Structure formats: structure tokens, C-alpha cells
Amino acid sequence: MTTKPSALAHLKVLDLSRVLAGPWCTQMLADLGADVVKVERPGAGDDTRHWGPPFVKDADGNDTDQATYFTACNRNKRAITLDMAKPEGQALIRQMAAQSDILVENFKVGGLKVYGLDYESLKAINPRLIYCSVTGFGQNGPYAERAGYDLMIQAMSGMMSITGQADGTPGGGPMRVGVAVIDIFTGVYATSAILAAIEVRHRTGEGQHIDMALLDVGMAVLANQAAGFLNSGKVPERQGNTHPSLAPYQSFDTADGAVLLAIGNDGQFARFCEVAGHPEWAADARFASNTLRVQHRDALIPLMQAATRTRSTAQWIKSLEDKAVPCGPINDIGQAFADPQVQARGLVIKQPVAHINKAQAATKSIVSDALGNTAASMDTVSGASATISTVASPLRLTATPPVLRRPPPALGEHTDEVLAELGLSTADIAALRQRGVV
């Protein structure tokens, strides 16, 4: 928690996105202080609320019906439920868009136009609106109308073709990255584009449409692998934990496990050789430069592997880290969060939250129907107090650091609050709820 002013507290964001890429972007904006209102389908909500196991635990340690996936990208937001397929729902979206600085959506191309909620329609209401569309393949091209998911893009972009063990080795074959990196990178790129559009608006007074495509991002983050292919014509291949342009830059077996060496220059290599007790390697004509080490990788790596097996992982790290030779353990995620540096940086945050489990939600619904209490809402029903843990924002601004205001919200938790800010009365909101609009 910080008491310092937040960077984006002056901005209002209307979040019509779901799953990961769009919500990752809007959580970044929310962490920086923007007021983000997340709009979800009544009764169902964001798909990731149901993508479990694992599920969030209540105070008694029992599973709730809230998947942990949702908590990864929806912190610091207010959540409302609204059916935008209904004209009244569309009118409320337009009213919110008129008062917003930014709108983020990830509907299929043209999906919101049928509701009059596309960029051109909302631009007429609010010319200052920055409207960010996130799709699989962008707003134009032969694949524009296709749905796109991270795994598809990892496959289509070539990412999987360079990830995993080489063909002909145990476990060889294309492999997806362990998290949805294309979605996450798309969210980060979208945030950058939005902040750039805000800067432009300072000069022009006008918003603009941002067209973010997972495929575009997937191709962009191929980085050096793409550059190598484009300028040499040689298609990169999978090579496990080794690097196509650096050596030694990989994992090595130790006496009790493995150590990762990331040697990026000749000085680091020479210092490793001294510690390993083989200074002659650095003087060997085959290994005198990085380029030569890459060319003679097949000769170098077995020599190093024989040496690394003589000491434990901890011994190698202790002997190399003060010699400025980049190295480290290969942790599982539990070990990573237990690491003293991760803990010193405060990368885990815990927030108290009241969960609604299935039994409570059902009871609320039955009681509300029986009493005719149509004004009852999710934000008036609380379950057992529990704690949600999320990974802290890695953005460290000294003057305007990220804020920690709200845990990932319950479905529709802030519906009454947000609609009241639009000028609707309690009776108005109750009527909308009775008609299934919210």
C-alpha cells in the first residue's frame, strides 16, 4: 500500500475485455492508479472465473467457485455485470464510454458494431476516447474474422518451433511456453500504445483507435530469432536450453542437480575457467571468442559438463557469483517464491477478500426471489473472510508507484456503485436487475 499519488489516477478505463490479453493491459493501468470498471456477463462473468482448478480457498481452506486464474489479471478493478445484447445495456455502455478516457475490448472484428459500440460510434459521442481493440489477427487481412488464442499464435508464429528439445533427442518436438506469453506481451504492448495515445491526446485533444493483434505481437517477440531468419534466410531450430548465438549459455548438470550458466562475453568465460580449474580453456584457440565457442560448441560443452558434475549447484553459485559470472539455480515456482531476493522485492501481495461460494449465492438468490428483494446484489453479500495472493506489479516508480486498492472483484461486486455514479437511483437499478439487464 502506498500513500503517494498514483500516475494515472486522472484516467477512467472502461474494460470490455476478458480472459488474459485485455485484462492484463487494464490491470497494468489499474495498478498505476486508473479507475478501471470491468464489464462482465450477468450470471457468468469472465471465462477465467471458471478456468480451474485450482480455485481460490475460503477462510476455512475449502474451494470456492472462483478460479485462481481470474485473480492473475483483475486486481484493482471495479466489476459490474451488464447484458450489452439488450438495448438498455448498450445505452449504459455508451453513457460510461462518454465519461471514459480509455476503452479496451477483445470482441471479434465487428462484434461490437452490431450494438453500436464500435469505435466510430463511440467516437461520435466522445472524440477524446482512446479505443483499444485486441483480436487474434487484427482488424484487416484474410484471418481478421478468426478467433485467436495464445496457443494458436504460439504455433502459427513459429514460437513453438523454437521451443523445446531438438528433434531426435528425448522429448523432442514443438513445445508451448509454460505461460500464455503472447497474451501477456499483447497486454503490455497494448498498455504502451494506450499511454502513447494519451500523450498524443495532450497535443491534439483527440483520441484514436488502437488495433492490437496477437499474431502481430507473436511475430514481434521472436526478436533475435526473427532477425536471424530475415537476414540470413536460415530457419531457426529447437535446441533445448542452448542459445543459437551464445556459448556457453545453457544448463549444466551438477553433483546434485543443475546450474544455469549465462556467459555472454569472453571475460566471463575466462573467469569461469579459472574457477573451474581449467584456465587453459580460455587460451584454447577454439574457444577464444564467443563466435568460436559457438562454432566449437560440440567440443566445449562436454569438457564443461565433466567439470560441473564435480560440485553441487550451491557450490558453483557461491564460487561464481562474486566473480561476476552469471549463474543461478533452476527453480520450480515454489522455490522461486521462496528465494530471498524475490521476498526482499516484495513480489507477493496479500489482500483480504470476501468470497461468495456457490451455496451462499444460491441462498441469496432463493431468499431474494422469495422476498421480492430484487435490489439485492453481489456487493451486499459476503462470505467467509479469506486472503487472495497475487504477484506485485514489477513497475517501480519512485514518485508515483503502483497502488494497491482492491482485490480481484467478485462478479458484479460494484454494479450498484458504478450505476449510481451514472445517476441511476436505487429503484432504477432494481428495475434493470429485474429485467436482466444487470
Structural commentary:
- The protein folds into two domains: 12-220 and 340-434, Crotonobetainyl-coa:carnitine coa-transferase, domain 1 (Rossmann fold); 249-336, formyl-coa transferase, domain 3 (2-Layer Sandwich), CATH 3.30.1540.
- The model is unreliable at 356-384 (pLDDT under 50).
- It is built from 18 helices and 13 strands.
- With 438 residues, it is an alpha/beta fold.
Topology readout:
Elements (H helix, E strand, L loop, with lengths): L11 E5 L4 H11 L3 E6 L14 E3 L5 E5 H4 L5 E5 L5 H12 L3 E4 L13 H7 L4 E6 L14 H7 L24 H24 L4 E5 H7 L2 H10 L16 E5 L4 E5 L3 H11 L3 H4 L6 H6 L1 H12 L4 H9 L5 E3 L3 H6 L1 H5 L3 E7 L3 H14 L13 E7 L23 H7 L4 H9 L4
Parallel strand pairs: 1-2, 1-6, 2-5, 6-7, 7-8
Antiparallel strand pairs: 3-4, 9-10, 10-11, 12-13
Helix pairs in contact: 1-6, 6-7
Q: Return the CATH architecture of the largest domain.
A: 3-Layer(aba) Sandwich
Count up the helices.
18
* Biggest beta-sheet profile: 6 strands, parallel
CATH class wording of the largest domain: Alpha Beta
CATH topology of the largest domain: Rossmann fold
Key attributes of the depicted protein:
single chain, 438 residues, alpha/beta, Rossmann fold, formyl-coa transferase, domain 3, 18 helices, elongated
Give a concise summary.
By secondary structure, this protein is an alpha/beta fold. The protein has helices spanning 21-31, 68-71, 87-98, 119-125, 150-156, 181-204, 214-220, 223-232, 266-276, 280-283, 290-295, 297-308, 313-321, 333-338, 340-344, 358-371, 415-421, 426-434; strands at residues 12-16, 35-40, 55-57, 63-67, 77-81, 102-105, 130-135, 209-213, 249-253, 258-262, 327-329, 348-354, 385-391. β9 (249-253) and β10 (258-262) form a beta hairpin.
